[in-house]
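User: For my dataset I need records formatted as: sequence, then structure tokens, nothing else. Please produce one.
Assistant:
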Amino acid sequence: MMMIMATPNKLDAGAGVAFLGPAGTYSHEAAQNWFGASAPWQAVTDIRDVFTAVDSGKATWGVVPVENSAEGSITVTLDAFATASLQICAEYLLRIRHCLLATSAVMGQGGIKRIVSHQQSLGQCRDYLNKNYPGIELRAVSSNAEAARIAADPAQHGVAAIAGQTAARLYGLQIVAESIEDTHDNTTRFLLLGRTCSTRSTGRDRTSLLISAPDEPGTLFHALEPFHRFGVSLTKLETRPSRRAAWSSAFYVDFEGHVDDDNVKSTLQALQTLKLEVKWLGSYPQAVAV
């Protein structure tokens, strides 16, 4: 069993670290917080592939985004927990500073005709794009770094990308404009995933659950009542389709506290008495914004 301390820097990367690629994504940047720059990286093309790589043992760790302060939850991450047998071992808050990137050729040959980026990033720069590039085609791609790779391709004409400074360096792009995100404190929360991990209670922890409930009146009320009864503070509640039957729901829940805390133990015991399926996803130190 792997032990992760409250400050999970420079972990043993084991068989490798899977992240949404290619190199230069914000997921890659977040992963380097835990493993440094020279870990055996495994860049994949979809967030679900991160879960698959770790679940199958091809990678020891996975790094996935779970929510953004401006655009909300990354639902593909939440949905992947329903079938994966993984635990959340740590979290990291990354301040996101978007740049508009292009080649010098694009800037000198009629300018930008199309802007590509991840769907979340396009949303996070909505006001900037409407003001500065009204009518320009916006196209969503699998990641910011993939957008930078496309913009750097000489066969692409008039294409710019929204990505970070790391992607600009990796793909040889010019920074047309920087810090173009619409909110000054734009931050994405990332999760570190493993097949097994254990964290000690630090006094400032977070626990995540996935609760599946029958489609009956009062289900959500009954699921939430134990948190109120035992003084457990919820930090996130997201309703997702359970995909088991039409209109059945699953609730992704984050709350303050560790599974070893007495009030959390009481809450989990109370949930077990109800007609609910409770999947514990992990207890881990809360990240500190930097």
